[in-house]
Structures are given as C-alpha cells and as structure tokens.
Amino acid sequence: MIYMDNAATTRLSERAFEAMRPYMMEQYANAAGTYSFAAASSEAIEKARAQVASVIGARSSEIFFTSGGTESDNWALKGAVLASTKPKKHIIISAIEHHAILHSAQALERQGVEVTVMPVDADGLVDPAAVEAAIRPETVLISIMAANNEIGTIEPLEAIGEIAHRHGVLFHTDAVQAFGHIPLDVERMHIDLLSASAHKFHGPKGVGLLYIRKGVKLGVFMDGGAQEKKRRAGTSNVPGIVGMGAAAEQARAQMEAVIASESAVRDHLIERIEKEIPYAKLNGHRTNRLPGNVNFCFRFIEGESMLMLLDAEGICASSGSACTSGSLDPSHVLLAIGLPHEIAHGSLRLSLSEETTMEEADKVVDSLKVIIPRLRSMSPLYEDFVRHQQ
Hints:
Helix content is 43%, strand content 13%. It contains 14 helices and 12 strands.
C-alpha cells in the first residue's frame, strides 16, 4: 500500500503510542481524582500541555484540550460571539475555510450574527488589505486558516494578525493542517485563538486543542464539570492528551528535516505530473504551500473514478471533489479559486508524510499515466476536445 492521504489522518507514531500505553493499562485513574493514584494522570496532562505549547510559542496555561479540531473551531467562533458585549456582532472568515468554520459561521448567522466571507485569489490567498477593509465597529472575530486542507496554500497570518491586533479584533486561525508541519508563533503572528488536532501530526484521533491567549474572554462551550479550568467540561482523555504531547514534541524536534524531506518529494511529484500528464493544473500556491501537499485537477475525468482506480493499485489518495461524500457539487475550495465545475470535479489531492519515498511518488505518477488516459478515452468531451485541437 502507498498511503498519500496524510491530510485526512496520519499514522500514530511509535513514540506517541508508547507514551500512551501506561495511561491505558496501569495509570488509568481519572485525572480529576483527589487521591494519589490520580496524580500521575494529572501530571501527565500538564506535561503534554507544555509540550504542545512549545510548538507555537505559547504558555502551557493557554492550552485547552478538546476532542479535536472541529470542536476547537466551534468553540472559538461561538465562544467569541457569546463572550462579546457588543450589541451587534460581526465575524470575518474566508471562502476556503474547513466546514467546521463555515458551518459554525452559518449557525451563528441563524442567530443574527453577520458574517463576511472573504474571497481568495487564484492561488487561494486571502488579501490582508481586503480583510482590513471588511472590519466594522461591531466586528468580534477574524478567522482565517493557517493553511488550506485541500490545496495546501499557506495564508499570510502575520499580516492579518497585525491588522486584527491594531483594530482590537480577536484573531483565530484553524491550524489543523499546519500545526507541527510548519513554524507557527502566536506572539509574532498576533494570534489570539488557534485550533489543532493530534491525528494530523502522528498523534491519536479524538483529541485536539484550542490555544486561548491569556486575557481573551471566550464563552464556555461545554458545561458539566470543572475540567480545563472550568472552561471545557468532560473527563480528560488522558491517553489521547499524552499521545498528542509526545507527537507534538517529536514534530517540533524533526520539523526542519521533515519539511526538507516532504518538499523534495512534493516538488518531484509536481514536476513529473506537469511534464508527463497533459491538461493537468496545479492547484494552490506553487511555492507558498504545505511541504506535503500536491493538488491537481485533470481535465475530462471524474475524481471519484480516478480514486477507485488508484485504490485498485494500492494507492490511498483523496479528491477535492465532494462527490466522494455523495454530493454532486465539487469542492467549495476549488470553486473559490475560480475553477469551473467541470474541471474542479477532476481533482486529486496527494498528501505526504516524512515516510513517503521518491519510489512511491514515481509509482503514483506511473499509475496516473495509465489511469488518466483510460478515463479520458471514455469521455466524449475529451474526444471532441482532441478533434478540435487537430
């Protein structure tokens, strides 16, 4: 099997697994217990809090553990609106945000909150000047993702954060795809709130975090207990939190080497596809993109059929087209960068890890060179196109 869907989830690292094991079998106490047996669990959580904080230059007291990126995004948007004392409330997001942000914003709209959706350019970049122009007196929050989960474009967080800071508006970033993969600094980037999820950087599924800058008021999202300083109720997922901490520490230590490794394979994939497969379009910024992200649209084919044939070859990948979830509509991200429906439907995302080899990359391209002509041979649109080119 060749696994190239690391943007969906990564393999749990051995280091994270070994760190988690004792808290499943021996040190299984509830961290909220008052007896000495529970102390080890409580101490392990605090160690993990410091480990993840160090990745983004935060204080450990500013890290709050959640069930994952979706919960963290919901808490950031809804909590910011709930805590605001402004009589009218307005938030700013981008058109290419993850659905955890888009759907949270839509839920807030139904409650009377005004939402401005910022467009992006053909590379998927948000214009900081346009964000500044959209700020109003009633603006509560700006939420712009750190890097896009589909096309890999890295957003200008520092510029947007400076604008938000200057206008006294909270700045949140969904860093689920970026945390542990590229350098992030909450101080330099003026970030007030940041979401991350452990399973995107070789940690376990079902655990995430929300960074909340000291002094930021955020409404309570989960009621029921005193966990996480009474700001997020629920029994602490001790093994998951410990695994997230171990994975974060490993990602921080290896980041420079991993960026170099993934970028080399990424660029090799892009170069071969562009040279050897006609009518292929690279999506996202050519250089300012995640080191492990490759996203192409291939004209005259359906992404779902391509994924099925890749799967038959033992290759795990994904498509930017939402047809994989039963929708007839292509990816909102690809439409937002200006692609027409017929081209957006033929998208392929290959997301790498430090374990992805050049040999695997070559195998994928070689398979695509067989699969894509096969699919195009069944397309009357492609036949008409070729006929008109002659």
